[in-house]
Amino acid sequence: MIQNSVAPEFREALKVLPSFDGLSDQNLAATRKAFIAAIRNVPVTEYPDVTLEECHVPGPSGAPDVPVVIYRPKDKHPHAPALVYIHSGGIVSGTPEVDDARCRQLVNELGLVIFSVDYRLAPEAPYPAAIEDCYAVLKWVHEQSAHLDIDRDRLVIGGDSAGGGLTACLALLARDRAEVKVLFQLLIYPMLDDRRGFLTLEAISGYFVEFSHPTGARSGILTIFCFWRRVLNAVRVSRPEKAVLVEAMWSVHCLFLQMACRSLRNRA
Hints:
This protein has 268 residues and is α/β, with parallel strands linked by helices. The chain has helices at residues 8-15, 28-40, 100-110, 129-143, 145-148, 162-177, 209-212, 217-232, 244-248, 262-265; strands at 50-57, 66-73, 80-86, 113-117, 150-160, 184-188, 254-258. The chain has one domain: Rossmann fold.
C-alpha cells in the first residue's frame, strides 16, 4: 500500500482539482473547463487593497496580441518593483485566473506590480508560442516602464509548475537576446525537463495525482509525458545536454527555487 506523503493541510484542497488522468485531444477542452471551475471553488482570502486591470500587449512577430492581467496596490508606490508572472497548467491549460490568489497576496504583502501573462496554449500553439508570448510581455514591461510607473532595474520573473519552467526559459531568452535585464527569477515547483520525471515509477511514489484520483502513480507519469508531447509537438528542442535549470541559474543574479512533489523535485 502506497503511503500518502501529502501534508494533511493540502489534501482537502487537492480533492477539488480535476484529474488529468487519460488526458487526450478529445477531452482536453473539458479538462480545461474543469480546471478553471475547480479553482473558482477554492476559498481564498480577499485583498481589497489590490486592484486589477486587463490589457493586451503586442505579441511576437506574426502572432496575436497577448492578454495580460495587471495587479497593483491600491496605494500606488512610484517606481515600484515589477514581477512578470507565468501561470501553471502544464502549458496545455489554465489562465492567469489559476494563480489569481497568489498574485493578489504577493502584491498585498510586497507592494510590487504583477503582470500575469495569458500565453497561448498547446497543442493549438506548440513550442515556441508560449515562451515567445512571455518574452513579448517582459520586453513590453521593460520598454514601457516609465508609463507603467515601475522600476525596470527591479524587474523580476516568476511562475509555478509549467510557469516555473517557462520562467527558467525566459531567463535564458533575456540573457541571450540582451534586450532586458532580469534581476531575479522565482521558480515554484517548476516543470523543467521533458527528459526527466516519468522514466521510473519508484522515484515518484509520492506524486499527488495518485491520492486525489487513486488510479496509481503511473497516471501521474503519463500526464506529465502528455503535457510535454503536446507542447513540443514531436519537435526536439535544440539545447545543451543538461537540464535547463542548470544554465538558467547563471542567467540572472538571484534565483529562488521551491520544490513540491517528488517528480518535479527530482529534476533539480
